[in-house]
Amino acid sequence: MNDKAAEAKLSMKYGWATLQSWANGGFAPRLLLEHWQELAGGWKLILMEYLHPDDSWHHVTHAECAEAMWQAVEAHFCSVRERCPALVHEDLRSTSIFVCKMTEAAWEVSTTDFDWALRAGPPIRNAQPTSHQMA
Asked: What is the mean pLDDT of the chain?
């Protein structure tokens, strides 16, 4: 590990294969461990590069709204689909997408929060009851 800041993620479930594949492709923060570390009680510790605001990284919702930024985000996910077609994020939200303005027209994009990520499979119907009330 180097002297850069690290983000420590604690989770009971984590899509390591998806994170590792996306990180190797440059679509997610660089991993700082070969694999997660097993902790007591079934918890997993995942260490990755911290996308620090001092380095101009921001959630996509907090960045300036520029056409070039949205084009970079779209290109990012097109590249992910092309290079990692069998792995899905499963919980993609604006708070999981980080952007860094490199130049006036160039943005770097990275994705975080792989708790629900997994290998894509056939669609299934969830037979478990949900907590949502139907009107």
From this structure: 85
Across the range 89-118, mean pLDDT stands at 89
pTM: 0.78
Do 98 and 57 form a contact (C-beta atoms < 8 A)? yes
How far, in Å, are 48, 79, 119, 126 from residue 28 at the CA level? Answer: 9, 12, 16, 29
d(CA 72, CA 97): 11
Lowest mean pLDDT among 8-17, 29-38, 60-69: 60-69
Q: What is the dihedral of CA 64, 117, 26, 8, to 10 degrees?
A: 80
Task: Give the span between the Cα atoms of 89 and 97, in whole angstroms.
Answer: 11
Measure the CA–CA gap between 101 and 128, rounded to whole angstroms.
43
Instruction: Report pLDDT for 103.
Output: 83
